[in-house]
Amino acid sequence: MNQFYETLLRIAVFLLCFAGTVVDAVKCYSCASENLETDFRNRQRRPPGTIVNLPQVFDNNCDSDIWILRAKASVDCPGACYKWQQRLNNSGVYSYMTVRACYEHMFGTPAPSNNVNECTNTENPLDCLPEATILDSSCLCKGSDFCNSANLNGLGIGLGLCLVFRLLRLF
Predict the structure, then answer these.
(1) pLDDT higher than 70, residue 85
(2) What is the pLDDT of residue 60?
(3) pLDDT at 104
């Protein structure tokens, strides 16, 4: 009978390991900096690509204090969460433009699968200001709620549980 419970425990642990990694939808932040609200689809400084839907909220808390917006900027997302941020570094003084969204909602297409849970960063000089640079960051993440709150999400809870149980040699 002891072997039965051990097998049952192994099955339960196995199912827990994949509970956090196999999901139908995740929650993503859907917001943008206030300075992006006017003429969002046509402006030069915005996320690249054809934008189908606007972010749910335009608020400067989208730049960094995102937890304040959780209640009003939360959307269900069938795929990947997205974060685009452009920082203008003018001799050490930064100004931000940030967009967080469900990639599928904003662009109307699934996220490129080869870039999920990755970030790309570029830095370019600003022609009109010799001491200024533009830092562009674009991230996609999948597998946990509100993963577009940071640059890149860590391990999912299911994978984390697998590692813990493996370390404890329960599975």
Answers:
(1) yes
(2) 93
(3) 96
Digit-coded pLDDT (tens) for 13-50: 444 444 444 446 899 999 999 989 988 887 777 888 88
In this structure, are 4 and 31 located in the same domain?
Answer: no
* Residue 18, token pair as written in the block: 């994949």
* pTM of the complete model: 0.70
58 and 14 in a common domain: no
Tell me the three-class secondary structure of the chain, residue by residue: CHHHHHHHHHHHHHHHHHHCCCCCCEEEECEECHHHCCCCCCCCCCCCCCCCCCCCEECHHHHCCHHHHCCCCEEEECCCEEEEEEEEEECCEEEEEEEEEEHHHHHCCCCCHHHCCEEEEEEEECCCCCCEEEEEEEEEECCCCCHHHCCCCCCCHHHHHHHHHHHCCCC
Give the total number of structural domains in the chain.
2
**CA atoms of 140 and 84, how far apart (whole Å):** 9
Residues 65 and 77 in one domain: yes
Q: Are residues 73 and 113 in the same domain?
A: yes
